Every structure is written in structure tokens, then in C-alpha cells.
């Protein structure tokens, strides 16, 4: 096999020997550094060495058009030093190739979410629309905190709501958490964990007044969706999430004990919701459908409503409550409890909050109750 002092000038003029598919030249300076010229005209840099078993091995450094001669030679020197020290360049390359791309990890994440999360469709959409386009083809060990932070900044610059960007960050980090639990190569460190959570105030809570709640109840009573009045009434009285109520079954309700079991809540844990006398009255008045296990089913399908969006929109228009979201009924239920003197801890238990911090958003609502308390105290002192 021919030898030559490889340099940029030699490589740029080297021609494949006539009648051969390729010609290799060994560098006379760096042992193992090889340049290959093919009859097609293409050229590639290699490093060849003897492995621990004495067999000849080869490591591709790069194509002539992809890497400069100076960079290729520098890499060959590094590889030669590694071999002299007893290393095997192929091992690192093989290890790097064994690290999955993020799209492979995301597939595992979504498969798990489909079995364990009630909000699977949301997770799937965020991964598909936001995360995969940027990180799908990147190896897990090449995903770095700084790049993630920059990417999330770009998402905010695109106009995404702060809560949406935070949701993206949490879902992305969850992929690595699951990967570490399953022993997926490249997930021993979670790069998302090093990205700080940007503080934001995304509160859009709206709280119905007593007069507004009366208007809403009157409007839903007129709805063509005969079940809407029951849904709204129970949401206001229990503070439950709408999906929890739409999926509720008769077997989950114990009228005698005045308790409703939600088998799987947003936190992933079951919880019991206490039922007030008015809530029991609504439940006892609900229409029953033969062989239907659901508490408030769609009368046409006898299955849970997929959505009540259209009837809800018509109802809030009639009630003159533009922009009211059905989730605001949960906030309103909390508001009514807090302003009736119920402490925040009890409110949090009713709503099924996983942490006290979640209930703190309602702390300001207790102002009327607290004001009444100090007024009562002042009156007592004045009478003494």
C-alpha cells in the first residue's frame, strides 16, 4: 500500500490508480493516518490501528468535503495517542451510537402516558408540536441546558403563553425522568432540571358572584342540553374538574355517606369529595338510563360527553357572562367556600390539591371574612 507525506496539497491532487476502485495512502508522519481516493472522485480520511486482539481496525474520521485536512490530521493524532494508551476509538463511537435519539425516548414517554395519564392527548400534542420538531433527531447526551433555555426563550418570543412554555419544559423534563427510571442510556442526567423555571403570573381565574351564579343556573336550565344544568350545578357545589364529573359513575357515589369517589384524579391519586345537601338533591333528581353506569351521560350515546363546549357557550351568552370558562366554576366553588369562612386547608382537601401552595391562590378571597373577624374583635373590645 503506497505511503506519502500527507498534506493539503497532496490530498487535493491525489488520483485513484487506473483500473482500481480506490487507492489508499498511509501518512509517513502520523502512524495509521490514511487518505482514500475513490475512482468516483470522492475522498475520505481514516485512522487504522491494531486492536487489543491484534486485528486491524479502522475508524472513519470524515469525508474530504466534510472536514479540512488540518482537522482530519489533528483528529488522527488524538486517535493515535488514544491507541498508544491502550484505548479503542471504536468503543467510544459505538457507545455514542448506543445513545437513543430523543424521538425514541419520547415514544416510550407517550406509551407510558397513554396508560397512566388522563391528560394524554395534551401531553401528546405538546410533544408532537413543540418538542419533537426541535429535539427529535438529537441524541440524548447532546441535549444541553443552555440550548434548552434558548429554545424555551424562542417559544416565549413566538407569543406562547408563559404557562404553555412552562408546560413544555415540564413535559420535556418528564421524558428524562422516566428514561432514568427505565435505565435508558443517556438519561442519567436530566438537562431540563438545570433550566430554571421562569416566574410568571398566568392567573385567569374568574369568580362568580352570587347574582352571576343565579343567572348562570337559569341559563343552563333553558339549554337544549338537558344535562348541562346538572353538570353546572354539581361543579359549583363540589369544585370538581369537569372531566372528573363527566366520567363519574353511579358506583362512585355513596348518597348515604354523602361522598363521591373520584378513582383517578389529576394528581394520579383517588380522592373523596364530600356532597352537600343541595348536591345530593341534584344527584337524586338525575335521570337514570337503563344499563348505563355513568352519572351524567350524553342521553344520545349513554356514554360520557366528549365535550359540552357548544351548549356551554350558548348558556354563558344567555347569562351575559362572556368569557366565562367552565373551569372557572371550580374557582367559584372555592370562592364561595372561602368567603363563607372555610379555612384554606379544608378548601384544598375538597378540591383535591396536592399541595397547600395550590390553594394559596384563593387566600385573597378571604379578605371579607377576615375583615368581619377584626370588626367583631374591635366591637368586642369597645363593649368591654
From TrEMBL:
Q: Which residues form the Tyr recombinase domain?
A: 203-375
Q: Which UniProt keywords apply?
A: DNA integration, DNA recombination, DNA-binding
**PANTHER family annotated for this entry?**
PROPHAGE INTEGRASE, PROPHAGE INTEGRASE INTS-RELATED
* Keyword DNA-binding applies: yes
Species source reads Brevundimonas basaltis
UniProt-recorded Gene Ontology molecular function terms: DNA binding
- What biological process terms from GO does the record include? DNA integration; DNA recombination
Describe the family membership recorded for this protein in Swiss-Prot or TrEMBL.
Belongs to the 'phage' integrase family.
Record lineage: Bacteria, Pseudomonadati, Pseudomonadota, Alphaproteobacteria, Caulobacterales
By what name is this protein known? Answer: Integrase
Domain of life where this protein originates: Bacteria
